[in-house]
């Protein structure tokens, strides 16, 4: 293994800090730590020092925030991607991008292997490895959690202490969290008991609805072709807009989810998520679509949205099917342009206004008052034709019963 390299997707947390030392001792080769900034708001200088102190030969810090928003989060917004009606896929969306960047470093460094910190029970192992296989199919993959004898976070902590590895996790606070621009997730520890509510001091992006302001906050989000472009008539760059919406929604207690979800591996797990900006954006985007999309397109898109969310959750981002669904979704977004006005109040999102030059809503048609466009007598013929099969089936059945 002399002169060979392993590139590790490094976060600076417990798992990957321990893995630098374990990989170095196990394979007797250089470990290169690759840190991908997807908006986790970390001290990357500190993370770099931690990686080097843990035994890394080299550390890459890659700023991928804007790419994360434009190439991944925009797709999630346009597709209203929510897994099992609750999870806005923050971790699942970031993993393909991280895998891509790690694979690119692996190719650049002519690495012997690529590695990650995902466990053998979770979804992330699939998301990382499918990304590695797509971008660097010739490079070996090493997953320490599937190889080493460490079986718990407590054992990891003991290993870290034994080898003087700097970590921020303690036995008293063993739950795991993952943060990026879109969300923060929490799992493990006390959260594994379904009857344990999360402690209030755990949350970082949101206040509880009870502690939110007593006065409602009104905002307006403008979309262009399904993409958010302005907040309260002010234009922000993609990353700044997410940050600003996280701040506004978080202060109003919006964006918390507690879910028992079905992992890809076949295990049910409990996760607690904070996705303030995402919750606002998808709620607004859905309202705008209801205004501008015709019935058949809207209903068919809703069917595909379920599959799209599933593909993201399963780690199937780099697939032909995902690209094909994207092509359909992007076509539907041509007229998803306009403004949605929201009232935010103690965890609630209330729609107070909708506006689009492509609106298919007509007050003249929808009114229950007198109008000149719709002849109500025409409905009789429509119902007769629409109900023809129902009436014909009923008549035939009655004849057979009476014989």
- Output the CATH topology of the largest domain: Rossmann fold
Largest sheet, spatial ordering of strands:
3-2-1-4-5
* Global Rg: 25 Å
Strand segment count: 14
Shape: elongated
**How large is the share of residues in beta strands?**
15-25%
Average pLDDT rating: 93
End-to-end distance: 86 Å
CATH class type of the largest domain = Alpha Beta
Summed up, the helix count is: 13
* CATH H level, superfamily name of the largest domain: HUPs
How are helices and strands ordered from N to C? EHEHEHHEHEHEEEEEHEEHHHEEHHH
Description of the molecule:
By secondary structure, this protein is of the alpha/beta class. It has two domains: 5-171, Rossmann fold (3-Layer(aba) Sandwich); 200-256 and 274-355, Argininosuccinate synthetase, chain A, domain 2 (Alpha-Beta Complex), CATH 3.90.1260. Helices cover 42% and strands 19% of the residues. It has 13 helices and 14 strands. A five-stranded parallel β-sheet has the order 3-2-1-4-5, with helices on both faces. The protein has a five-stranded antiparallel β-sheet with strand order 10-9-8-13-14. Strand 6 and strand 7 (184-187) form a beta hairpin. Helix 1 (14-27) crosses helix 6 and helix 4 (90-108) packs parallel to helix 5 (124-135). The protein is elongated and about 85 Å long.
Key features?
alpha/beta; Rossmann fold; 2 domains; five-stranded parallel β-sheet; 19% strand; five-stranded antiparallel β-sheet; 403 residues; Argininosuccinate synthetase, chain A, domain 2
